Amino acid sequence: MDGLSLFGLFAVSLMLVSYALEKHSAWWVLVFAVACGLGSSYGFLQGAWPFGLVEAIWAVVALKRWWGLR
Fold first, then answer.
1. Angle CA(30)–CA(36)–CA(12) in degrees, nearest 5?
2. Which of 11, 31, 36, 47 has its CA 20 to 30 A from that of 20?
3. Where exactly are the structural domains of the chain?
């Protein structure tokens, strides 16, 4: 497994964990937004721009949710 794949695995795993823990604290919503940003970066870096674009949109949506919860 190369570095880019490890980065993608980390980003998606962080998204999963933070999504599961969102109900416990607004900070997990922020972590989810950051993880979506990392997932977006991974998508663009690997050449899957549709995935990168959708993850970027999710990051913005999560940031707006976090802003409203804090």
1. 115
2. 47
3. 3-69
